[in-house]
Amino acid sequence: MKLFHMRDACSFADLIVVEWAGADPGVTTLDLKSLNSPEYLAIDPGGTVPLLVDGTFVVSENIETLGYLAETFPARSSSATARGVLAPR
Ligand SMILES: N[C@@H](CCC(=O)N[C@@H](CS)C(=O)NCC(=O)O)C(=O)O
Asked: In the structure, which protein residues have their CB atom closer than 6 angstroms to any atom of ligand 1?
């Protein structure tokens, strides 16, 4: 798994989740220049953060990356569904 983020951006929420989970998804810190590099745009044509890559699964919407992290690391998740408190919808 790889998590791409940029300092002082909304992807900070994803960093908090992986920190709480004690997970090490492989974090790459981008800046505005690298965000618009051909290499990054090849992965995320939208050129935004966060971006989460897990094998062939690629997610670029923060609401989805946070949900995916919660489901992947349920033990310390803030998601009631992931912790089994609520049934999945
Ligand atoms: N669709 C994305 C958009 C996220 C987004 O706009 N991220 C901002 C940082 S908070 C970004 O990457 N901005 C860089 C830019 O627009 O050049 C989401 O909702 O997660």
From this structure: 9-10, 35, 47-49, 61-62
- What are the Cα distances from residue 47, in Å, to 20, 35, 62, 71? 27, 6, 13, 25
Task: Give the bridge partners for 5, in sequence order.
Answer: 29
Other beta carbons less than 10 A from residue 12's beta carbon? 14
Helix (H) or strand (E) holding 63: helix 62-72
Domains of the chain (ranges, CATH numbers): 2-76 (3.40.30.10)
Query: With the C-alpha atoms ordered 56, 61, 66, 70, is the resulting torsion angle positive or negative?
Result: negative
Overall average pLDDT of the 69-74 stretch: 84
Tell me which residue of 21, 28, 22 sits closest to 5, measured CA to CA.
28
Q: What's the whole-model pTM score? A: 0.85
